[in-house]
Amino acid sequence: MKIALLSEKYTPDIGGLAISAGRLGELLSAAGYDVRLFAPTGSLPPTIKQTQRSNGVIVTRFGAHKRLDDTLVDWFEIIVGEHQREPFDVIHAYFLPMAGFVGVYAGKYLGIPSIVSIRGNDIERAAFDPGKFSHVMYALQNADAVTTNASVLAKKAKAFVDREIHPIPNGIDAERFKPMERNEALAQSVLEADGLLSPSREQAPGVQMPVIGFVGELREKKGLSSLLYGYAQLTKKKPASLLVVGEVRDGEDKKFFDEFRNINNQLPITLTGQVPHNDLPAYYSLMDVFVHPSLRDGMPNALLEAMSCGKPVIATPVGGALDVIEDGKNGMLVNVNDANLLAEKIQELLDDPEKRKSLGKAARESVLKGFTLEMELTANLDVYRKLGLKP
User: Fold this and answer.
1) Angle at 314 between CA 339 and CA 193, to 5 degrees
2) Would residue 272 count as lying in a domain?
């Protein structure tokens, strides 16, 4: 079976969409299927494309235009041209407005089945954008199958189109993301420069300052303000450091972050910059508590990764977090935009090592029971079978 996988982002692009699309492509390839992945990129000039093999997947990146419609035209024509050379059996598109629209349109045009996968912002924000709404609706109405990684996103999609939505949660490589001893060499290189290894005056000599962790691109949607204000509130009662593994989105978010650091320059905060995905387990090992205070979301890869690493997690009850976390059993939930409650919950965990340990253990067990790579692959193959394909 030959699969055309379309994604609006792909590694080394930042974000969960790039990670998730790459993961599905690699899972299908490792299972013996012929996978071609197509994604636009700003790093190539318009009309230029490059193709190379990456972890068993043949990846074609093509230069995006300033005008979105020109990019979509190129994407459609590339798919049609590749299908004429070596026919695809199915087109599978990640994200509704661009990849989904092109994938479904190409599938209708070529007479092959198409699948679209709802990932988060496509149904929670793009559907409210007049310039993208028609593309979202076309993809939802005309795809042969629709999947999503969070039950709340399925409910929102059904408010637009009453059709079957297949839930397929993200899968995590639990052998790569697993509990491990604190990586002291990494701690020295990453944390020492910002003083995160130095005990505060309130701590006894030799006692390590606890580390609060966040992983991903920090921005408003991911709870930028509540994370920073909650952390500042926490430090009024208990010394702690903040480790942001990733980058802050350029523009207003970066301006807000920089102003916060300037005003609160006594607070130990480390911003690592982009980190290769394979290196993340070592960074999770540095964290005492992982926080993910999103305003809205799909199913965050970082949340599942932290849980798989046995970390106690605190998140907001949005998107896929509702499918993953049982409050007080395998993690903790706090209200959206509630910096005070976030600070209280972090302090509660920092003050109770046994609770951190029990929540972390239960978190990993939850991942092993319901969010493995094998489960993600099997669920996607089941959708292919329902379309009459024979994977």
Assistant:
1) 80
2) yes
Surface-to-core class of residue 250, CB atoms within 10 Å of its CB (0-12 exposed, 13-18 middle, 19+ buried): exposed
Structure confidence at residue 135 (pLDDT): 95
Q: 């706090």: which residue's tokens?
A: 334
Give the whole-angstrom CA distance, residue 171 versus residue 324.
12
Domain co-membership, 322 together with 352: yes
β-bridge mates for residue 147, sequence order: 117, 166
- Please enumerate in sequence order all residues whose Cβ is within 8 A of that of 331, keeping only pairs 6 or more positions apart, or say none: 307, 312, 313, 314, 315, 324, 325, 359, 362, 363
Name the H helices within the chain. Answer: 16-30, 68-85, 101-110, 121-124, 130-142, 151-160, 184-191, 224-235, 252-263, 280-284, 301-308, 321-324, 339-350, 353-370, 373-386
Mark whether 137 and 223 lie in a shared domain: no
pTM above 0.85, yes or no: yes
Same domain, 141 and 258: no
Pairing mode of beta strands 49-54, 57-63: antiparallel
Unique residue bearing structure tokens 């006692």: 207
Residue 269 domain flag: yes
The strands making up 269-271's β-sheet, listed across from edge to edge, are 269-271, 241-245, 211-215, 289-292, 313-315, 332-333
pLDDT tens-digit map of 17-30: 999 999 999 999 99
